[in-house]
Design goal:
The complex is a heterodimer of chains A (323) and B (80).
Chain A (H helix, E strand, L loop, with lengths): L12 E10 L3 E4 H5 L6 H8 L3 E4 L6 H16 L8 E5 L11 H7 L6 E5 L5 H15 L4 E9 L9 H4 L4 E11 L8 E4 L7 E2 L8 E2 L1 H23 L8 E4 L4 H11 L6 E2 L3 H4 L6 H12 L7 E8 L3 E8 L2
Parallel strand pairs in A: 4-5, 4-6, 11-12, 11-13
Antiparallel strand pairs in A: 1-7, 2-3, 6-7, 8-14, 9-10, 13-14
Chain B lengths: L2 H16 L20 H15 L5 H4 L5 H11 L2
Helix pairs in contact in B: 1-2, 1-4
The chains are: A alpha/beta (323), B mainly alpha (80).
Chain lengths: 323, 80
Amino acid sequence: MTHTIQLPTGARGARILGIGAYRPRRRVTNDELATMMETNDEWIQSRVGIAERRWASDDETLVEMAAAAGGKALAASGLAAEDVDLVILASASLQAPIPGIGPQVAYKLGIPRPGAFDLNAGCAGFCYALGVASDSIRTGSARNALVIGVERLTDVTDLADRSTAVIFADGAGAAVIGAADEPGIGPVVWGSDGDQHNAIEIAAGSATMTMAGQAVYRWATTKLTETLIQAMDRAGVGPADIDVFAPHQANLRIIESMTKRLGFPESTVVARDIVQSGNTSAASVPLALSALLESGEAKSGDLALVLGYGAGLTFAGQVLVLP
Amino acid sequence: MSREEIQTGLAEILEEVAGVTPADATPEKSFTDDLDVDSLSMVEIATAVEDKFGVAIPDDELGNIKTVGDAITFIEKNQG
């Protein structure tokens, strides 16, 4: 006997309803770093474009930061905690991988028994999670989703390795996603280059992360332009339509290189949150969007192009309407 | 392509990517010590060299190219 499996209708589209961020209290300037390791402000600014970054204190745990950013995104969305039925937490810096912390963060926010899980796609995690959340809403698996990117990269950074210690930082960013008749999140364009699996890694038995800086820089500046173009193509827009370009804040020189290659109009606002926040991996895209919305450089209704990329190597990008 | 032609083409890339005066781009010069080219600019130079000369410079080869002369020799040996 055959059975017909019923499927929900789902939603025509999904959109971001609110964005929230948490920046750790402690601000660490390049001059302060120069007292800890062999480096200086000029060296750091010219290589990676970072002026300062935030380092989490002991009480600013992954769960606390994720809940703080998630709570702000919920408040901005206008939804109640009970309205959320899916929580996806993107992180690559969990010290204890079991259990994932998505369920605990949801519990802390008073979200009743949502589908909740962690997603590790390195620095691409937030954009991967956004794609999964958007598609879950469109297919009817969820009504509203909370997507969080959170990292304490300082926990996995060797302070004696100046090639990574000046770059990596801590923080959390979040977005609430809901159904929309007019789509506000374009198709995700995602992929991976697993042949470069050890370009960014915490090697077995090691406690800290290493990065093949030249290889990653080359990959990011040559291979990902195509992903950005595809993300625009699949959403039916072009560079001239993009109000805000917010790629993963890995290195200011990568951001400038991508911006130049894509040929945006002068009016396109380019996220350079890395200057103040360093590289916060899965948290960098929502942190950058939040900073632009707070400063007024970006506004509600703006069309943004986002891209995450990093360890794996993984990448994911999409076009969004800002809340 | 002769070594002289390669040197001229390489000097053009160095000027564009790293602001090196073409007359300074002589074979004995070290990219990092003499020409102030940092590791990420070396990547940009490598990709520009690949486009211009039709050679492939794998990431692990890049570390062996220390001087302008090393780069000229690599291009000379690997050009199609």
